[in-house]
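Notes on consecutive records. When two proteins share a document, each keeps its own sequence and its own token line. Never mix them. Below: protein one.
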Amino acid sequence: MKRILPKGLMRRPTNGSGASSPDQTDQSPEGILLRELTTFCEVSNNPQSPQQGNEFVHLPIIVESAESSPAAAKEAAVRIRKYLSTPNQTPNHVQYNAIMLLRILTDNPGHTFTKNFDSKFVAAIKELLRHGRDWHVQNYLRQFLSSLESGRSMDEDLQPLLAMWAKEKAKNDRPYPVAFPSNSSPTPPPRPPVHPRNKLPDPGELSARIEEARNSAKLLTQFVQTTPPVEMEGNDLIKEFVDRCQTSSRLIQGYIHCNDPAPDEDTLLTLIEVNDEISVALSGQQRGLLKARKARSSRSPTSSNLNSPSPPSNGATSATLSQPFSSDPPQESQIPDQSTTRLSELPGATMTGARPNTTAQRPNNERYEYNAADFEVQNPFADDFATQDSDNDRRHAQGTTTQGSRVHFQAAEQDR
């Protein structure tokens, strides 16, 4: 008799990597993420394939689905674990793309994805570290684990994974395999094919190249914003997208200047806008790299900064000004009084014959009143005796005049 299995226990169709094929009609975040993730990881490694070079257009949808739904993030972790748990059966380019997606989702959405790193996930990573045969996959995975160890060692979600990585590093001192097996490509996934110069591709391929360039620029900007400065210079994922953005920029600029056939106005405007987006993304990466170098130089000061004395702080300066030491007199007390020096240089009272300065003898609390005699100075070259004689004659003349007028006044009254 024919054995009939319950519908729920029927085996779902699987692909070559052992993962079940996603449902093409499921429009939930989980279904959308599984479709896009499968397409991204399992894209053909054949350069002649029409999908080759377009796999990165699926990354924004994967990230958005994982951010919007924790269940979708869990499905992504489970699917990546299945890709990495069988290193001898899964194609090398699928493992490479799965690790790339693992790095992306670890940064964004982050905790929603990394909280699903259970014991099965850690065991799959350990299996790939021990039995993986592809050099590029091993190198890429080890760089990723090293970056987590240096930059996110305090993350609670990553503690089991980092503990396993520390044990594997201490246990396995020999270098990882350098020989390429028969099913391994000696280079990372190939770049998009370059078309002949001044040749515009067909509309379908042109649309795919434009979409890929936009997504590459968008992802590069996101990676630069979410990557710590200490990891900016050695981040292979950023280097990968910088290379892709530069390649896409050359393609887009070639499409702008091509004349066989020349692009129409709408297409030309779209190409110019995409080229601007790529330029902004590359400029942001360069600014982030400059910021990382400045941060590194600030952590390691030069010898000149170490030898030069540090200037006092504002608090120390204010304290010095407000509370001077009692042992050291103020600087202004050591400087002679300029007013005293100037007065001593003037001619004395005996020399000039002037009256003594009474203002200097007044106490400070007495109100000052102006007296013109205090500022009267006699000419030192004048003849004192001649001056006194002239003064006596003038007073004698004034007295005679006064007496004559008085006598004249009395005579006038007598006549009256």
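Protein two starts on the next line and is unrelated to protein one.
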Amino acid sequence: MNDAHLRLACFELWGGNGNADHAVELPGLKGWVYSTPIEAGAGGGDVHYLSVCRQGLISRIVVADVAGHGSHASSMAENLRRVFQHHTDNWDQSALMRELNEAFHRESTASQFATATVLGFYRETGELLFSSAGHPPALWYRAQEKSWELLQDCTPYAVEIGGLPLGLIPGTAYSQTGVRLAAGDTLVLYTDGITEARDPSGSALGQRGLLDLASSFTPESPAKTCQNLLSALQIFRSGQPQHDDETMLVLQYIISGEA
């Protein structure tokens, strides 16, 4: 199981870098994905990717953000999605992160990079492995405790999981951290277009601001959770325009028979 060379049979179920606003489902997880590029009708730099491996035993989930805007960022996002398609079959998540970094470095132009959160979810145990390549931390609603937290704040190794963005430096090492989800737990992955949204005074929402918005309600369905967060974001903005691609992926752990 720890063999970095062991490969899995993986299949993409959902993914892209364009507009999205729909339900998604993986073994043990139901969810909702929302994505809107800053340029209407065009692809953006945000990428979401959801796949199943080993006949649904393991799911791999990625939310990534390619630096920049416009057609070049969109083209690089499409390249990054192909990188995910070709490499998420690596059993070992730290090795997977290294492969993603090396492959995107080969695909990208000078100084091009992408942040990413990569999850590995094991449906039978509820275990969640996560790695970050310079990406904002996910929100985690712990159903038993009835509380929201930043996922990185829940681990003793939070300082080690930040990682450098993909494509910057070949040979970068990435760590992985694990938590165990309980039934009803909810994860919210997002790109920095969400947390860099600004109010009329010019103040950015920030990660803690997003956490505060989430803490104002109890999650229901992933669709409702996504809707509530986006509605709260619009209230925060008070009419201020979108300045970046925005993506949000909400996932809820469902034990078989409880869906």
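For the record: The mean pLDDT is 90.
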